[in-house]
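Quick one:
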Amino acid sequence: MQKSALLIPVVVIAAVVAISSVFIVDEREKALVLQFGQIVKVKEDPGVGFKIPLIQNVVRYDDRILSRDLDPLEVTPSDDRRLVVDAFARYRIADVERFRQAVGDGGEEAAARRLDSILRAKTREILGSVTSNDILSTDRAGLMLRIRNGAISEANALGLQVIDVRLKRTDLPPENLNATYERMKAEREREAADEIARGNEAALRVTATADRTVVELVSESQRQAEITRGEADAERNKIFAEAFGADPEFFEFYRSMTAYSRALGSNSSMVLSPDNEFFNYLKSDQGAASQ
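Output:
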């Protein structure tokens, strides 16, 4: 009975020791077994691991892809137009042993802060070597790749693998916005003035061409009208000449009657002496015969 009473505490202690010597690592993490702060075992595969209770302890690190947003960063491109850049990086802990040696007890947050410093320095270096137009253009994947490649070696020293770096937003500083807006406005106004000048020049050319065409058409029409009028006058004179030649007496009569008709309209009055030359035809033998 006394032996049973002594055996129970021993079994309980043994069970506690056995349980405390076992740890489980799932697929989302990696683990280090430390003994007095020194690494004695690395557990990267998921499953059950063992350690010495009370002497050794387990430190776990996330094995998934992590994301880190950088604080807005002001950069000065090669054309001296300052820009505010927002970026983020995706990375993972690739070597937990080196990671532990680099950051110590600081863990993932300390590593993220050091990675921030690396990325900020590389971002300033790469973006400072190109123009602002290159940064603001849609085709800036090459710049992001250069930033990532530049940060890889320094991140490896921390046991980190940089997977990707992205520029989320690139803006002008607030104090530069108005100046940039005014410059852009002036450029657009200059372009508009150039377009208006070119339009006015084209309008003058069209107007001059139209005026010249009008003059040419009017001149040609007048020439044709004069030709037609001359031909008509010639035809009229020809007809008069033929009529006069056919019956000179009648032609003389017709011409005199026409003259009388034009001179003595319904609303006209003429005072002439009877021996006036205007009445020569009526006094003639032909006129007397016709009366």
